[in-house]
């Protein structure tokens, strides 16, 4: 069972000290949701609320993410959500290259267990790591890429959408594009209608 395997991986990750973030965090924020799942979202790293609660995207950005998912008929229990780094960078600074590199094997192992057809990168940090080093979120959000047989798209990070509401219409268009591909190329909506 993928979910049990992910649980074991999270237990191993809880004692990881491959970078200094493990020393300063409160709780490990490994990931949440369904595994396997055809859709996986990858953010940057835990913020204050995530660090306290041990779950990704539970603060203000997370509430907006839930609204964005609802807009396309999804909720977090139907998909899998993780971050590039599993421990909170102090004062919400960007994760450093060494921290991203140290944490990457955990994400790669999660991806192997979740087996997504589609990964949506939430923001420039995840896109820069998973799609292309010089990814430009302002120009390339909403476009499709393929990496190791997985379709990938980046959208603006929900925190960026909280800071700058002018980016929201473009993000709604990206989400509609995502919904179209999910409808055509996955069983995600069929599974939902069978459940209800
Ligand atoms: N921002 C992220 O990138 N991830 C979280 O889990 C919360 C805020």
Could you walk me through the main structural features you see in this protein, from its secondary elements to its overall organization?
The protein is built from ten helices and six strands. The protein has one domain: Uracil-DNA Glycosylase, subunit E (3-Layer(aba) Sandwich), CATH 3.40.470. By secondary structure, the chain is α/β, with parallel strands linked by helices. β5 (145-147) and β6 form a beta hairpin. The model has no long low-confidence stretch (mean pLDDT 97). 41% of the residues are buried. It has a six-stranded mixed β-sheet, with helices on both faces.
Q: Outline the low-pLDDT stretches.
A: none
CATH architecture: 3-Layer(aba) Sandwich
Q: Count of DSSP helices?
A: 10
The average pLDDT value, as a whole number, equals: 97
